[in-house]
Write a structure and sequence with these properties.
Blueprint lengths: L1 H21 L10 E10 L8 E2 L2 H6 L8 E2 L7 E7 L2 E8 L10 E10 L1 E10 L9 E9 L4 E7 L4 E7 L2
Parallel strand pairs: 1-9
Antiparallel strand pairs: 1-6, 2-3, 4-5, 4-7, 7-8, 9-10
């Protein structure tokens, strides 16, 4: 009798686990949705220019710290704007990484969109200017249901690029 109850308990547990493995059904996207992912790392420009030290300034420094140029480490924040069909859907002012704010800024944002034809705009400012963008691009894309579009930034070319994947 003891083994029969133990077997029944195990069987009931297996049925419950099996039931929860197929129900309730979870879908990341609806039937007519797709994902656009903004994903890249970028180092903005330095806050200031390097400055050559005078001989008097060099003499005031300890011998092991006498470099002829003094350069700031800190970088500008990254200003990012992303729009779909003329509507801004993501806008951010992202600080640089690092203890001295001298590293790259990491961007990762996923957005759900409806499948179909879309006009995408992405603009990025990394120079400290107050208006406009240093890099920008418009995309005209046909996005299928369940598709994943990744938008990255190619540092060597200085432009945004898309990579299309499917479900």
């Amino acid at each position: 009798m003891k083994y029969l109850l133990q077997f029944a308990s195990y069987a009931l547990f297996a049925v419950v686990v099996g039931l929860f493995s197929i129900w309730p059904r979870y879908a990341l996207l609806q039937q007519d949705e797709a994902i656009i992912s903004l994903t890249f790392s970028h180092a903005a420009e330095l806050i200031g220019e390097c400055r050559r030290l005078s001989q008097e300034e060099l003499n005031e420094l300890p011998p092991n710290m006498r470099k002829p140029d003094e350069c700031p480490r800190e970088r500008h924040p990254l200003i990012l704007q992303f729009g779909i069909d003329g509507e801004t859907v993501y806008e951010a002012n992202l600080p640089p990484s690092g203890l001295w704010r001298d590293g790259k800024t990491d961007v990762y944002r996923r957005l759900r969109v409806g499948a179909g034809e879309h006009t995408l705009f992405i603009g990025m400012r990394d120079s400290g200017r107050t208006t406009g963008f240093d890099y920008q691009r418009d995309f005209q894309l046909s996005i299928g249901p369940g598709q994943n579009i990744a938008i990255g930034f190619d540092e060597s070319a200085g432009q945004f690029q898309t990579h299309q994947g499917s479900r």
